[in-house]
Write a structure and sequence with these properties.
Layout (H helix, E strand, L loop, with lengths): L1 H42 L41 E2 H17 L1 H6 L3 H17 L6 E6 L2 H5 L14 E5 L5 H18 L4 H20 L9 H4 L8 H15 L2 H10 L15 H13 L7 H17 L22 H21 L4 E3 L2 E3 L1 H15 L24 H4 L14 H7 L30 H4 L3 H14 L1
Helix pairs in contact: 1-18, 2-4, 2-6, 2-18, 4-6, 6-7, 6-9, 7-9, 9-10, 9-11, 11-12, 11-13, 13-14, 13-18
Length: about 475
């Protein structure tokens, strides 16, 4: 009898130990994924690479960007698998990196990744400051998507046109100007207390850009038509709200609060949060003010909070119009780069979980109550799927685990490094020698999250499968905060 009890106690202890090991391993995966997500941004850098560059297969590129307009536009990020610098998604990328640093500052610091996050933000903001040389001028693109897509070249070898495109008083772009304003305002909050001079500089440009967006209104693709073929904006009211919300958070100025109060109800309940649709982000920032008691729970403020929470309820499958899921449990928003929308939704839930916890509050959904820990459980389900807990047992983040996409649709990663083979790879040669090879990329694009599986959890690891196999900065930026919160 005693021996039987001892065995039971031993087995219970062993089971408990295994659970602990499993939990530690899971946390280690989040931490490793966080580290790699920030490495990814170093691989996307354009310009003169710094001495502390950790992604060694990359080299300097785009060193004459802006020369056609006699302006220095060296730096910034290539947005996905190509060599174009698109200002609209780049600004959203910076905004989400900054929001990660602001809301998950403690977690990033605890995981020794705050400095890398600030470096990733600053690589973007330094460029955005250059792109805004005058109050009513903003450069919104360098390079041309069509000519770029006709070539498969390393960024270090580029011979494609590096044409610059801008908005100004005669050629407005409220969405582009306001998103850039939001990025700089959010970044100013991230740098407050760390580099006050830089934070103030960012804020000055942010205010000017918000004024630009308000004074000269229009959709930016009407002024930069080449951008519209790749990153067309569906409107600019969401960006104006988003920018005003960040400027209020950065300054506390009631002017921005008054603007939010007059306009914030127009978004309605959204079906996504993305590089094109910022309403949910603005609604969540307003909800934070409601929870903190800084605005009353009435009128526009109550409406915004309700709309933000309905979006979260739908993602967590407790709403009256739930987001579709794949058989394996992944949220399904769009056929193209679905994981961008998943990562953004996961960020919203992570941030809201923090706000609920701080104020001991809950969300009342159509099908029940959501507490802070319920949101964390939901976020974990989506992140775990991305990192390998899915029907294909594949990590959709490159470099995490052993089974991850090897043929990522990415020019730099798919061609031998210029450090290993400095001979230029010409435009069409890149297709014949590298793109069409049915072999793993020679360079591992650590931290990249590909477009993701289809509606049935299927994924084809092929460079030509750009709809599923191409990563983008807008996908990984929200994951920095999400992973920091889980690690």
């Amino acid at each position: 009898m005693a021996a039987s009890m001892s065995l039971n106690i031993y087995l219970a202890m062993l089971f408990s130990l295994l659970l602990s090991v499993q939990e530690i391993t899971c946390h280690a995966d989040y931490k490793a994924a966080l580290t790699k997500s920030l490495l990814y941004f170093e691989a996307q850098r354009s310009g003169k690479l710094p001495l502390n560059q950790r992604v060694h297969w990359r080299g300097d590129s785009g060193l004459h960007d802006g020369s056609d307009a006699k302006i220095d536009l060296v730096g910034g990020y290539y947005d996905s698998g190509d060599n174009v610098k698109f200002g609209f998604p780049m600004a959203f990328t910076v905004t989400m990196l900054a929001w990660s640093a602001v809301d998950f500052n403690y977690q990033l610091k605890a995981n020794m990744e705050l400095q890398h996050t600030l470096e990733a933000i600053r690589w973007g903001t330094d460029y955005l400051l250059k792109a805004h040389p005058e109050p009513y001028v903003l450069y919104g693109e360098v390079g041309d998507g069509s000519s770029d897509h006709a070539c498969w070249m390393r960024p270090e070898d580029m011979t494609t046109p590096r044409t610059t495109f801008r908005i100004d008083a005669q050629h407005p772009g409220s969405d582009l100007a306001a998103e850039t304003s939001a990025a700089l305002a959010a970044a100013s909050v991230a740098f407050t207390g760390i580099d006050s001079r830089y934070a103030n500089l960012l804020l000055t440009h942010s205010k000017q850009l918000f004024d630009f967006a308000m004074k000269y209104q229009g959709e930016y693709q009407n002024s930069i038509s080449v951008a519209g073929q790749f990153y067309s904006s569906s409107g600019f009211q969401d960006e104006l709200l988003w920018a005003a919300a960040w400027l209020h958070r950065a300054t506390g100025n009631p002017t921005y609060l008054n603007y939010l109060n007059s306009m914030a109800g127009n978004g309605g309940t959204r079906s996504e949060f993305s590089w094109d649709d910022k309403y949910v982000g603005a609604q969540v920032l307003i909800s934070k003010l409601v929870l903190e008691g800084k605005v009353g729970y009435t009128g526009t403020w109550a409406q915004c909070k309700s709309q933000a929470e309905q979006f979260i309820c739908s993602c967590a499958q407790k709403g009256n119009s739930n987001v579709k899921r794949t058989p394996g449990g992944l949220l399904r928003f769009q056929p193209w780069n679905n994981l961008q929308y998943v990562s953004s939704a996961a960020f919203i839930a992570s941030a809201y979980s923090k706000y609920l916890s701080a104020h001991n509050s809950t969300i009342q959904c159509q099908s029940g109550v959501l507490r802070a820990n319920d949101l964390t459980t939901f976020v974990k389900s989506q992140v775990d799927y991305i990192l390998g807990s899915n029907p294909k047992q594949m990590s959709y983040m490159v470099g995490v685990g052993t089974n991850y996409p090897k043929e990522v649709h990415h020019r730099g990663a798919s061609i031998v490094s210029i450090k290993a083979s400095p001979a230029p790879v010409e435009c069409k040669e890149g297709f014949t020698k590298w793109f069409n090879r049915n072999e793993p990329n020679p360079n591992v694009l650590d931290g990249a999250i590909v477009g993701g599986p289809d509606e049935n959890d299927g994924y084809t690891d092929s460079r030509s499968n750009f709809q599923q196999a191409e990563p983008a900065t807008v996908t990984i930026a929200p994951m920095v905060g999400v992973l920091a919160n889980l690690a």
